Each structure stands twice: as structure tokens, then as C-alpha cells.
Amino acid sequence: MSTGARPALARFARSAPRVAVLAVAALALAACGGGAEKSGSTSSPSGSASADGAAKPAAFPVTVAHKYGSTTIDKEPKTIVTLGLSDQDAVLALGVKPVGSVDWFKEQPYGKWPWTKDKWGSTKPEIVGERDEYNIEKIAALKPDLVIAQYSGMKKEQYDTLSKFTKVVAQPKEHPDYGAPWQVMTRQIGKALGKDAETEKLIADIDTRFKAVREKNPEFATKTLAVADSFEAGKYSAFTKTDPKAIFFSELGFKLKPEIDGLAKPGWNVAELSAEKLNILDVDRLVWVTSSTEANDRIKAEPLYKKLKVNQEKRDLFVPYQDPDIGAAFSFNTVLSIPYAIDEITPLLAAVK
């Protein structure tokens, strides 16, 4: 598996063997029909008449550039599969229910999270993979006319296989895997769905929410903040400026610590720390996003952690990943999860003196 940037929990997959992409192009083509891609070509949209008789551009065709070239979508996609870990949120926000989605550590992307329950309703997508391991046969069986993979580490061979039977919009090319800002990924998805105007409205609404928090809490701008986690004794992680969690807190107004970026391996959005390097986490606000009280107790018991002022002065927050789903909300950092994350975390941050 690539050593590219990985989201908080998905980085466990770095040591797992990659499941080979199945050679099912012939089956897929038979099931779904060809989905030929055009690299670097843009079609001019045809004009259509509005109610007042004036010509206006049609939404389709659209061409979306991505890591592996560009994809031209000729008509509105109706059957969509999302392969990015959080891509389903933006698709749902734009009024479309994906027929297929990937799982994030068996966490059931449909219906579990409070910010998407109403959007999914009773609909359950087919689970077509876990993280970057896609079941090509399952995807082909759904006969999608569009596959979206934004918050993903899709490989070129996976893209090529999928492109034999459907349109594919891979991750943004200007950013590392898992490193594109939520605005970029949302716009990519909105463009592919022919919903640019709705997308800009969603983004503007979120920007307004962030601005309101910054105006109400101007002291945030004077504070440094780091986000960290620990999944086993003696091993800790801090997230760089390209990670969704760090991006979320930056947009709340906090300053990030650039030294963390310098400790991360090239292409990664997480810096792995030993206990001896925990001093880099001695910031004004330290947010631990953890999955158990056992992890919290273990971190607090670390002798070198006890020496940090951020701990001694109780400026550290231990935020659960789920139950309640605060950590998951700012880990996803999507147009649907951000409002929930803002409402839940801002009072906790404001209460720290």
C-alpha cells in the first residue's frame, strides 16, 4: 500500500497487504457498457432556452480534471458510487443517494452518523470496499454511470479498470491523496453532478458558520492548537496542516504548529511521535481524538506527557471519535459534518482558559 497521506484511522492500512485489483474488465463491460474517458478534452455545453427565452448554458457536458487526467460527463449521472471515505456526504448534501459506498473500519457509512441519517433515510448503499480496497465486481454489478473518489488513495490501475465500464472522477491532482481541502473536493463532486450553483451555496453557508465562530471567539486567533491521537502505548501521532482535522481547527481561527509538518514523512498528513517527542504538543490547545477511555487514561499516565504545561494547566481536550461522534465529525470535515462538529466542539474549546 502506498505511503501516501492517510486519514486518522485508515493509516492502519499502511501495513496491510494490498488486495490486487480484480481483472474483471470484460465482465464489467458486459454488465454496464463502455464508459470511455477523454483525457484533456473539454466539450462546449450546448445552449438551452430559459423561461424568458434567453439562452443559458446547459449543465452538461462537463469535464472534471483529476489526478489521472480528466473525465467528460455527457449527461446527468443517476447511479453513483462513491469510493472516497467521506465522499458520500457531499453527494448526499446535493440531493443524491449513492448506490454504493466504501466502509471506514466497519463503521457503516449509511445511517450511522447523525449528520447523514436523515439524508440516507431507509436507503442503504451497497458496501463495495473498505478504505482503498475496492470490490470491482460489486461496483460493476451496480451499473454506475459515475464513480467518485475524492477523499481516497485510488491507484492508477484501479482507475484504469473502473474507467473501462464507467465514468470516474479520481482525487484532485493539485493535492496529495487525502490532502485536498474540503472545498476542493466538494466542488469536484458538485461539478461532476452538474450542481455548481448548489455547491457554492453549501460552501458559502459553511464559510459563514466558521466566520461566526471566529467573530464570537477572537481569542482563538491568538492560540496555537494541535490535534493528536494514540492507538498503542508509547506511540503518538500529530496531524499536519493538510489533514481534515487540522484544517477544521484552522478554519475555527486557531494557529497550527508548523513544526509538526516538518516531522511528517513526505506525502503523509500525520507525524508519528515517540514519548520523547511529546513536547511538540505543548501548545495552547491540544485536542486528542481517541476511541476509548483506556486510550485517554494511558495518555494521561505517560510520565513525559505529565510534564507538559498543556496538561498541567488543563488545556488539553480528550474528544471521543464516536458516542458522541464529535471526533468523527471533524475527521470527516465535510459540508454535512462540519456544522455538527462546530456545534459540539466550540463550547468545549471556549471553556478552556
What does this protein look like?
33% of the residues lie in helices and 19% in strands. The protein is of the alpha/beta class. Strands 11, 12, 13, 14, 15 and 16 form a 6-stranded mixed beta sheet that branches. It has a 3-stranded parallel beta sheet with strand order 5-9-10. The protein has a 3-stranded mixed beta sheet with strand order 6-7-8. The chain is globular.
Percent of residues in helices: 25-40%
Number of helices: 14
**How much β-strand is present in the residues?**
15-25%
**Arithmetic mean of pLDDT:** 85
Q: Which spans have pLDDT < 50 for at least 5 consecutive residues?
A: 1-56
Cα end-to-end separation: 43 Å
- The whole-angstrom Rg is 21 Å
Which class best fits the helix and strand makeup? Answer: alpha/beta
Query: Quick one: biggest sheet?
Result: 6 strands, mixed
What's the number of extended β-strand segments?
16
Which word captures the global form? globular
Sketch the topology as an H/E string, one letter per element.
HEEEEEHEHEEHEHEHHEEHEHEEHHHEHH
Name the descriptors:
single chain; 33% helix; alpha/beta; six-stranded mixed sheet; disordered N terminus; 16 strands; three-stranded parallel sheet; 353 residues
Quick gist of this model?
The chain has 353 residues and is α/β, with parallel strands linked by helices. The protein is 33% helix and 19% strand.
